[in-house]
């Protein structure tokens, strides 16, 4: 089975985010990690390979620093990787990211493509489903359980208030939800082997594309940090008196009553 796993390197949202004067995220000192949902995708791809045979190809887009995330995926057990890296991709929107990804994927045999449900940096949840549309293959999002038997695919996906079971056939695009599996940690041996596994770097020109082909249809002007929460306020006095004061504050200051 030919398995492709799309991963994205993101900044660690647990770290303090600093904005520059233009309302953009200041990359200086930011800790970059594999998007956590993509770790579920990597693990599921490796499990499919272990069960059904074949190989796992990791594909990503970004600068040279994205190689760190890719090597981690290779250390977990992926077999090879492709990095699409081009300066023109810096301001690329989700639609054109999917188009670029489709061009790269078309050069690789695949039966199933797995990605994380959402990226924790922009929260767009668009690239995988757009990719499926471009490739004209079915997609199943937010998958909690996956079974592949022959060419038949059965997936349990999360929906509002419950789950849904979907059946389709290969090829297919899957997005992984938290709970699909427990991602493994790279072993020391895996880390050493990852250094020697093939990593191919492609530019837009290699894909037959140019910067003009990916001119964004949407631009993010700036980001704003959430307003800092004010400290708590203690209301003194007996319970009845304090309750009256609380009601007054909610009515006159918070204006929620």
For the sheet with most strands, the description reads: 9 strands, mixed
For the termini, the CA-CA separation is 60 Å
> What spatial form do the alpha-carbon principal axes imply?
globular
Q: Would you report the number of β strands?
A: 11
CATH topology of the largest domain: Rossmann fold
Helix content: 25-40%
- Structural class based on helices, strands and sheet pairing: alpha/beta
User: What value does the average pLDDT take?
Assistant: 90
Order of strands across the biggest sheet? 9-8-7-10-6-1-4-5-11
CATH top-level class of the largest domain: Alpha Beta
CATH superfamily of the largest domain: HUPs
Keywords: Electron transport, Transport
Family: Belongs to the ETF beta-subunit/FixA family.
Protein name: Electron transfer flavoprotein subunit beta
Subunit structure: Heterodimer of an alpha and a beta subunit.
Task: Explain what the structure shows.
This protein is α/β, with parallel strands linked by helices. It folds into 2 domains: 2-214, Rossmann fold; 227-257, no CATH class. The chain is 27% helix and 25% strand. It has 6 helices and 11 strands. The strands form 2 sheets. Strands 9-8-7-10-6-1-4-5-11 form a 9-stranded mixed beta sheet, with helices on both faces. The chain has a two-stranded antiparallel ribbon with strand order 2-3. Strand 7 and strand 8 form a beta hairpin. It is globular and about 70 Å long.
